[in-house]
Design goal:
By secondary structure, this protein is of the alpha+beta class. Helix content is 28%, strand content 24%.
Length: 173
Amino acid sequence: MSCTLPAAGLTQQEAMNQQIIEQYMKNMQDLINAQQNIKAQNNPGAQTQAPMAPMLPPVQNGTPAAPRPQASPAPPPAPMNGSMAMQSQMPETLTNPAFTAGYLRTQIGKLMRVEFLIGNSITDRVGRLAEVGASFIILQSLETNTRYMCDLFAIKFVNIIDGMTAYPELAML
């Protein structure tokens, strides 16, 4: 914060308070503009609204001053193709293979045996990994035309079966 001489009629403490309030208002406006830019990126076809006025007007000589005119909103970004837009909207836990869900997304379509800890016991399911969400996986059963939605956070072990040598009778599936 820069140290300036107080305006006429203000003590040094009041001038510092005014600078703090003005910096706060600038930061709030920057935050509002950033939120609107994010909304515009997530909804490229939607109409953008003008930025909201600051919540508190700046204070001059102990009384609120007239609000400053607002800058016009930034133009919406160019639309992204479908996969890039979807990728940018996904949480990092789904895109980064350092996370369980992110790694399992690289294994979609593979046969696997997944073990879950439920209460004090371990149970397992075998199937093809069909989908991975933020907190779940979908396993396609091999015996029936059934899909299992499984809690990602209950998973303890995942055995990924590369190739069909372990289960040659399932090679037709």
